[in-house]
Write a structure and sequence with these properties.
CATH architecture of the largest domain in chain C: 3-Layer(aba) Sandwich
Distance between the termini of chain A: 83 Å
Strand content of chain C: 25-35%
Oligomer: heterotrimer
Structural class of chain A: alpha+beta
Chains: A alpha+beta, B mainly alpha, C alpha/beta
Shape of chain C: elongated
Structural class of chain C: alpha/beta
Number of domains of chain C: 2
Helix content of chain A: 10-25%
Number of strands of chain A: 25
Helix content of chain C: 25-40%
Radius of gyration of chain A: 35 Å
Number of domains of chain A: 2
Chain lengths: ~450, ~290, ~325
Amino acid sequence: MRKTAYLLIALMLLSVGVFAAAPEKVEQAVVNLILFDGSLWKNTISPQEYKTFYMMANADNILVPTNTKVYFWPITQEYMADFYDLNEEIEGTMVVSRGNRVIARIEKEEYAFAYPNGYYTGSPQLVRGEEAHKASAKYKDEVNAYYQRVMEYQQALIDYQVALEKFWENPEAYRGRESEIPKEPKIPEYPTYYATEVQRGYIVNLEPGTYTIEIEGMPETKRTAIAFTPRRQGVGYDIRPEQQWTVPRPSNDRSETVYVYGKQTIYVTPYKGIEVNHFMYEKLKKLPSELSGRGGELVYKWMALEYLNGGTLEVYKDGELISTSDFKQWYVDQTAGAALGYNIIEFDPKVQGERPPSFEGFRVQLEGSGRYSFRLVDKDGNVVQESERLIRSIDSRSRFFAVILPIVPILIGGLIWVWRASLSATDTGTDKTSKLEVAKS
Amino acid sequence: MNRFRAVAIRAIAGRELRSTLFNMGIYVAIALGLIVASFMIYTYVTGIMEYGMAVMPSSKTETRYYSELPQSPEPMLVPLQWTVYIGAIYITLSASLSISRERDQGTLEVLFYGPVDSLSFVIAKFVEQLLSFGVVLLFYIAYFVVMSAISKFALGVGFLKMIILSLFLAGCMASFGMFLSSMTRKVKTSVILFLVFVITFLAVPMIHQFVMVQYTSTMKGAVSVARHVTSTLNFLVSWISPFAYLGRGTTAIILGSTSELIKSLFFSLIYTVVFLTASIVIFNRKGVRR
Amino acid sequence: MIKTHNLTKEFTTTVAVKDLELNVDNGEIYGFLGPNGAGKTTTIMMLLGLEKPTAGSIEVFGKPLDKNYFEIKRKVGVVSENQYFYGEMTAWEYLNFFGRLYEVDEREKKIKALLERVKLYHRRNEMLLGYSHGMKQKIAIARALLHDPDLLILDEPQNGLDPYGIRDIRDIIGEENAKGRTVLISSHILSEIEQLCTRVGILSKGRLVAEGPLDIVKTKVQPDTTLIVEIENLTDAIKDKLASEPYVKKMQVEENKLILSVDREGDYRAQVARIINENSGLVVGMQTKTYSLEEAFIKITESSLESLIKEGTA
């Protein structure tokens, strides 16, 4: 009992180190990295402990050397920067070298990110200099206009409520004058367009290779930058079977096969994808983490970037074209009544009204067993690279054979065993007995 | 290798193979492997029937949704991997009994009355183990070809690579088993030794993994020490355990890396030669007497 | 055929064989004898290359064993004391396997002939697991003969056999020797050794303490011939007369029997009978007694003779 108590106390004391102390912050020069991942820009830092960082080649990447306080966060096993505590941007000329050769000297410039289709729909654009100011100003103007519309709406709403009360006092009076019935004002829509504030940083766009970057005269900002490219680019698909449309399955790689059972209707939504080195890509997204990318040095993974719309999907069976499908919007129409059920129909704004489409994509109808395939063709009639997929219809009889086949080796072994057992000698007695048997034969 | 040794190897390996094929053991091992494969394939098919479809993803893919299906470029690859594991364990057990059983029952001495020396004997036993595994593999291949044809699950290049890898793995397993067998005089001792090693080879990586996920950023205590110890043990096991060579090869196949696959095959070969040589040396020292 | 020189085998705590100078000539049946633990099996194991000598050399067929291992082993057939078999094989499969091992020509024909010879052809497709000890011994003989060896080494081949089995083995050994095969046989059934062997070697505590033709080995232990004469009317005159004869070495009287040790050279029975008759005695019976091999064996191995008694074959 006493030993157990001592052991527990020892374990608790050991764990004190984790829970009692706040992480120690160290002031240092980091490089704030805003790196393009193929579709968006991701933010990470390069502290002194991680002086090699990875970025996409042939893309605009933003580097912002900063003095800040860095600490190690044990729970996620990564280094983090406390910009609230200290955030001093480092000024100077950034020197980019390859080997011993200086290939560029870059000054800080102004930039902003603009989202013409909205922040949450992705596809930001990096705008620089004067364009950055314009984008940021445009967003502010649109927001201001929106707030103005909100105020107008609120007034309109009050007016509407007053008019409605009056209507309800004598609705019969409005017979034949339906156009005078008060109509509810439309809620103003928040502007789709979004842009960030204008900021300053070093924008680098490098070919694949290894580089050294440094703010001139400041060795603590020296870093190694590895610019990499995707190994492949292609088309992936979100594939939904009709009976479980809420759980699409991704198919990124052309080598993947889609297996279906029986007569099936599936919906495929294509997206642009890239195949990148897993380690480098994970480090691009989160550099100063012990766990990110670990073990992935040899692994190549497909990353989905943005959805594609348009084009035509060609469907083949046993090598022959059986149908084509157009890119459409689809709506999941719940069936009326207490029982659960739905139909997937083509989206029609006139019918569905305010409701948005459930998803977009191509419909593929499969008529049972056979070897199917589909591929994407763009509006110019060209086959989109890496867009082919094979579809195979499985046979449920395989389950029966899965049960039966393992018995075969046992049967073979059993037969052999029985045969060999029949060769066992009987009790022979003395050799004299065998001589008698010879005499008899 | 002189002609007499070649004759001895052929004769002894032939006899051993015959004995193996006339025993139930190999068929039970094959059936066990097929049962595991069947269970997986049955699950795959049922899953597809219930869900309506499935994409067999590449392990190169970062899936964005939970998938109950294996991360493998070919649906038959993971079932094959498991059947190979089972077949390999059978070969290790069989090899670990091969020398000690003959010594225990006295037939080793009788064999050495003839034109047989330790080199030809050990090589013959090794060859027989490979041939036995070849028989096991034939059953597996036939099974997967039949199941592929019926289920329509594709067999691809990865399947072929796994078959080749499994032959090299069988070499590792057989040589390791024979190493154990050469050290013992009794069948019982061989079995115990086999179990001890297999359990160690499986347990060490698991313990290592458990210890590694413990947080140690500010703790330089017992866990840190344990990490060092288990890391060293795990490193040793990763080179001594024949199972580790299957793991290396399988990873290479799933990653689609030919260079890594060739590297793993090369290391498997070195492993086999080292343990086979050790078996011959130990066998010579122990002698053939009961 | 077999020649060893200073052959020695030392284990951690014992010296099993010491300075063994064994000579087995071509075409002979050599009896290799010794009490339990004398080192016979260890010697045989060294001759077969299954034990490495601590010192000394072994030549078989005039060639060093270590340099001509395979060549020599292919010409030696062995039946060991204990029979170990692959129980899951039939007799036919077993012999077929060894036939392949020795690359026997016309293998199936030879196996059939041997199985018929040992009277087990009708049991050829039964598993060895169920064979009796005697049957296994016969299969071992068949295995040893399958590849037409020039040398047969038999370690207790008749152990545990019934009289029929013993006789069958004896006949086979004799037949094979008649074909020119050299046989080295180790056995505790000394009566069989006496019937079969032309030469014997006796091992005691790891040393060869006697070797040579049977008669000569026995002679060295018992140099004189013993005459046992049963006499009616045995008188002192008869005793005195016989005692004074130069060829009588020793005389013992037991009631009406005289036990005389006479010179081994020469046959003195007629002279003894004449002396008895001349002195009014009547010879009722007379027999010559020589040492059996068993008696010689026991005497030799019990003694602390360190010198080697060796006789040439000529």
